[in-house]
Each structure stands twice: as C-alpha cells, then as structure tokens.
Amino acid sequence: MERRFQGSTDIGLTSTGVAQAQRSARLLASLKPDAIISSDLQRAAATAAELAAITRLDVSYDATLRETFAGAWQGLTHDEIVAGFGEQYAAWKRGEPVRRGGGELETEVADRAAPVVLHHAEKLPDDGTLVVVSHGGTIRTTIGRLLGLEAHHWEGLGGLSNCCWSVLGEGARGWRLLEHNAGTLPEPVLGDDD
Q: Please, which pLDDT band fits residue 24 given cuts at 50, 70 and 90?
C-alpha cells in the first residue's frame, strides 16, 4: 500500500473498489433509499452508479460533495508529505486548522457539503432515506457539522473504510449519529430519547 494522499484528484475505482461498491450497493438497496446524491469524482460516481442500478433511482451529482482539495499534498505519499511539509503536517495532526498543501480548510469543506446534504434531506418523505456518496474527509466534516460538533472534535469521529457508511437520523434534539464506519446493515437502537 502506497499511502498516497488522493484529495480531490479524480481517479477511478480499481477492480477491488468495484467489488466493494457492488457489495455495499446490495446491502444499502435493502434500506429502500428514496434518493441518492454523489460527488462527481469518478470513484464516488461509479460507487453511486452501482446502487442506482439496483434501486433504479437517478443519482444527483454535485461537485460540492468532492473530497477536500489538498493542494500540493495531492498525489504525494505519506513519507513525501512529512518530508516536504513537516511542520504543516505536524500542525494538522495536532488538530490545528491547516490548509494542507495550500488547499481547503476542513471547515470550508463542511461549509460547502453540509448545506447540500440538508437540502436533499429536506426533500425526503417522512422517514425517507437519503444515500450520500462522497469521500472520507468530506463525510467526516459534514457529519461533524450536522451534529453541531466544534471543528476540532471532528477528527474524533474517525475515518471511513472504503465503501463503508455512516447512518444519521433526526432525533428530538437534531441530528444524531446512529452508526459510523459500518459495513453491515444498521440495527435499531433504543435510547432514552426515542
């Protein structure tokens, strides 16, 4: 594994990625989604297309759901980033707001992506399901924003494995995270606020 920082570089899925997308699509289709929105980058668009083929839903592609633009870091390996941008990398790992490689701040990613998710969620029928196909950094920052977490806490959500998902629902006090980095179907959880 090269540990290459992709950022918003537009690359397609590998054969492994296609198989992962097909597996996820089969599982997520059983949730009977009402709508699918996706980043327009190839790897997300191809993933969304697998779900659309099963559900027969149209996909709404939106560039605001793209992964974080990481400027000069894009395409570099982890070792190359540390060697060339050591202090910037260290500041980012400490949780400081950093324009990685001269790119976007995480808060800017949330500023562009969260409103798109909310717009599409508002159009759903009661108890409807929206599937958002995007990228790990964009998903994490959007979830953090929807949950009302301060930006320096977003990293606490952790990353997402390829073709895994998070489940959010609206509770009495706003959005809540029901599952994160899931690769199986969600199960109902009973809580004090139900």
A: very high
Q: In terms of C-beta density within 10 A (0-12 exposed, 13-18 middle, 19 or more buried), how is residue 85 classed? A: buried
Orientation of helix 42-55 relative to helix 15-29, angle to 10°: 40
Helix axes 106-122, 136-147, angle to 10 degrees: 70
Give the Cα separation of 133 and 142 in Å (integer).
Answer: 12
Stretch 17-32: mean pLDDT: 93
Residues forming beta bridges with residue 77, ordered by sequence position: 4
Name the amino acid, one letter, at 64: T
Which of 62, 21, 22 lies closest to 39 in space, CA to CA? 62
Residues 6+ positions from 7 with CB-CB distance below 8 Å? 67, 68, 69, 70, 71, 73, 74, 75, 100, 101, 103
Amino acid at 151: A
